[in-house]
UniProtKB/TrEMBL annotation, chain A:
It comes from the Bacteria. SUPFAM superfamilies: TmoB-like. This is Toluene-4-monooxygenase system B. Residues 47-66 are annotated as: Disordered. The lineage of its organism: Bacteria, Bacillati, Actinomycetota, Actinomycetes, Pseudonocardiales. InterPro entries: TmoB-like_sf, Toluene_mOase_B.
Length: 90, 505
């Protein structure tokens, strides 16, 4: 296990944030890590009760989400790579 | 012996020039320091400065200006203005002096480069006076705040900021090093004199001066209008440079230089000027909004000057107009949330009346920036002021060194624009900062933001305490806190305050 810093882009947050994650974090754990410094400090949960997923940031905001159980290492996330944390209809 | 009138000798003296006999021209004027565009000397000798002044006149006029500025200061020093001033207003001064004072000394070096390396004799002449102007500006903007250090140690940042590794100082230095410290004399003139000084300094020196006068601070108001009177002269150096470049087939290069510098300085000045104008100056003292000032001084005046020179609006003009309504609002909230990293004490000052004003001036403010403030205000009113202080770090732009932020709330516009170059991932606040990087990656690629330094070992361990110490917070002075100790939040307890601050609304 080792750590990695990614750039979290939480839906409707005004900031992009540096988020420390462990490489064995699942995507659900990445979501929690991204919510932690934002929700309740300057941001609200984008949709309480809704499922939040993680996807790589793209110009068109339509990349497929990473599977929820996929780890950071398996997703091959890189240092300071930007990821979206967004409300999913799934 | 009677002295000659200037008109009798000026045109003989002002373009005095010679062809070197003992060295090659390129030894005397190395292209990378002087003119990399290959414009003939005969063209440079047509440089005709709009304002003409002799050294004798310069000394006389500047002496009068200094006498005026220093005597106003001396007279008002007997009052207790600064002891009694609104602490948020004092923060405006701390921010200004910290960002500007040593930047003026840096500009003196830039003008010195033009003095030495311009091929245009008239430009060398004018840049000499510009150099003296900037020396004056550095000295006077250190002398004035020096009196205030005994009142508040944060004023020591007037001298210390640009020797520190504070993120805000790094943002200022990076922009100024790019625009005016590390380029040839011709490009420096376009970027500094035209894009920076002609395009943007009025917003700080005239707009803020009006607000300072409204606040009753005639010492500062008089000081910066006096400074701007110098600026109005030496900023004119850039216009004939651009005329010569355009006439000699270098329009594209001139345009690019303007486009780079204008954006870089805008990103800094929006914080320096926009936040105080729209948030810190008490509502009843505000002259105009930042957007209104920018519309007049930049949108109208500067745009007209560009077109008159045969140039065009920068390619990103629509992005710039959007940024005028966005960037400083994001940073007002961000710098307030991360206030312990600052050398000044920002105020939130976002009460119901202020929000109504912001909504009027920036329609949609409450549904975007307002929602950010809602969360922080709720925490304060619920008895958790500590939760109004940010945790963690924002992502930082690898060009402007500023947190990557944009509208949130009911919209989702914050994003880093990323670029991989030589195996490293770079993040930018905008397509414009990214474009600047892509023009010359080797120029920028090795620089590290504060965020980079947290992870490359330079700030180690990268604990919050160590990061603050690295940036000088708690070292040069205490870090920032709310200037009003959150008193402005009590406005929400008054009858009739906006009901929107209900959790989840």
């Amino acid at each position: 296990m080792s750590s990695l810093a990614v750039i979290g882009r939480l839906e409707k947050d005004a900031h992009t944030r540096i988020i420390d994650v462990d490489t064995d974090f699942t995507m659900d754990q990445v979501v929690e890590a991204c919510l932690a410094p934002a929700v309740g400090y300057q941001a609200r949960h984008p949709k309480p009760g809704a499922m939040l997923r993680v996807r790589p940031t793209t110009d068109t905001d339509d990349a497929d989400p990473f599977p929820r159980s996929m780890t950071v290492a398996e997703a091959r996330l890189r240092h300071f790579q930007q990821i979206d944390i967004y409300v999913s209809d799934d | 012996m009677p002295l000659l009138e200037r008109s009798a000798w000026y045109d003989i003296a002002r373009d005095t020039n010679w062809t070197p006999k003992y060295v090659e021209v390129d030894e005397l004027f190395p292209p990378d320091q002087s003119d990399p565009y290959g414009i003939p000397v005969a063209e440079w000798e047509t440089f005709d400065e709009p304002y003409k002044v002799s050294y004798r006149e310069y000394v006389s006029v500047q002496r009068e200006k200094d006498a005026g500025a220093y005597s106003v200061k001396a007279a008002l020093a007997r009052s207790s203005y600064y002891e009694d001033a609104d602490p948020a207003y004092l923060s405006m001064l701390k921010l200004h002096y910290g960002a500007i004072a040593l930047s003026e000394y840096a500009a003196c070096q830039s003008d010195a480069r033009m003095t030495r390396f311009s091929k245009a004799p008239g430009m060398r002449n004018m840049a000499t006076f510009g150099m003296l102007d900037e020396l004056r500006h550095g000295q006077i903007q250190l002398y004035f705040p020096h009196q205030l250090v005994s009142l508040d140690r944060q004023f020591d940042w007037a001298h210390q900021a640009h020797h520190s590794k504070n993120w805000a100082a790094i943002a200022g230095r990076h922009a100024l090093d790019d625009v005016m410290m590390t380029r040839d004399a011709v490009t420096t003139s376009v970027m500094l004199n035209f894009a920076f000084e002609t395009g943007l300094t009025n917003i700080q020196m005239i707009g803020l001066s009006a607000d300072a006068a409204n606040m009753g601070d005639f010492t500062f108001s008089n000081l910066i209008t006096s400074i701007q009177s110098d600026e109005a002269r030496h900023a004119q150096i850039g216009t004939p440079v651009l005329e010569i470049m355009v006439r000699n087939g270098r329009k594209a290069e001139a345009q690019q230089a303007v486009d780079i510098a204008f954006w870089r300085i805008h990103r800094i000045f929006a914080i320096l000027t926009g936040i105080p104008m729209d948030y810190w100056i008490p509502l009843e003292k505000r002259d105009r909004s930042f957007k209104e000032y920018m519309t007049e001084f930049v949108g109208e005046q500067f745009e007209r000057q560009l077109l008159d020179l045969g140039l065009e609006r920068p390619w990103y003009w629509d992005i710039f107009l959007e940024d005028v309504e966005t960037h400083h609002h994001c940073q007002a909230a961000a710098t307030w949330a991360w206030r312990n990293t600052l050398w000044w004490n920002p105020t939130g000052n976002v009460g119901p009346r202020e929000r109504a004003w912001l909504e009027e001036k920036y329609p949609g403010w409450n549904d975007t920036f307002g929602m950010y403030w809602d969360v922080m205000i709720e925490n304060i009113r619920a008895g958790h002021p500590e939760k109004s202080e940010a945790v963690g770090m924002p992502a930082m732009c690898n060009m402007c060194q500023i947190p990557i932020s944009n509208k949130g709330g009911t919209v989702w516009q914050a994003r880093a624009y990323q670029l991989e170059y030589e195996g490293r991932l770079y993040s930018f606040c905008s397509t414009v900062c990214k474009w600047i990087f892509e023009l010359e990656p080797s120029r920028y690629k090795t620089f590290n933001t504060i965020a980079d330094r947290m992870y490359n070992g330079e700030i180690s361990p990268n604990t919050p305490e160590n990061i603050l110490q690295y940036m000088g917070s708690g070292v040069i002075s205490q870090g920032g806190r709310d200037a009003h100790d959150l008193a402005w939040v009590r406005a929400y307890d008054e009858p009739g305050a906006t009901p929107r601050l209900v959790a989840g609304s």
